[in-house]
Amino acid sequence: MKIPGESRGIGTSFIPILEKLPVLSWYAKTRGWHYVISWLHRFTGIGLIIMLIVHMYTLSSLQTPDVDPAKIKVIVSPVFLFLAWASSLVVGFHALNGGRLILYELFGKRSDEAMIRWTFGLSAAYAAMVGLMMMMKNQHVSTFFFWLMAFY
Q1: Which runs of consecutive H residues, i.e. helices, occur in 32-111?
Q2: Tell me: the pLDDT tens digits for 60-75?
Q3: CA 73, 58, 75: angle at the middle one, nearest 5?
Q4: Residues 118 and 11: beta-carbon distance below 8 Å
Q5: Which domains does the chain have, with CATH numbers?
């Protein structure tokens, strides 16, 4: 039996977990989830800038022909793989929330609660998929798919 006011969707199980975080739940109760998610979008934007700078620095240090094997061992270490996975979370959440904002602003989709649940749910699914691919060490992309995305 459905309780009146109860919402069902992909993120219904995520909201009780997020409400247990002290600061996050306080802001969500006093100002709403739209406020929390807007600040998360800003923080992930700053994280993307930092990630871009670090990525450019690490790639430029590997560009010389006499690359030290110790540098390569550090880059493929579990710590760096975890940071790569965490940065993929930042990219995934920022992209999905950007899509939510585009739907909200341009097309008038005003079902904010459902869209926030979908953003959190799809971000969690993306994080699980990327983590699984990293554990399987399966990070190859077909040439066709690469060039399709490059020219899209």
Answers
A1: 33-61, 69-75, 78-106
A2: 777 776 767 777 777 7
A3: 20
A4: yes
A5: 14-151 (1.20.1300.10)
- Of 42, 13, 33, the residue nearest 115 (C-alpha): 33
Cβ contacts of residue 56 below 8 Å, gap of 6+?
none
Handedness of CA 111, 117, 118, 120 (dihedral sign): positive
What's the one-letter identity of residue 105? E
Q: Locate tokens 């790569």: which residue?
A: 84
Q: Give the predicted TM-score (pTM) of the model.
A: 0.65
The answer to whether the CB of 23 falls within 8 A of the CB of 32 is no
Q: How far apart are CA 25 and CA 151, in angstroms?
A: 42
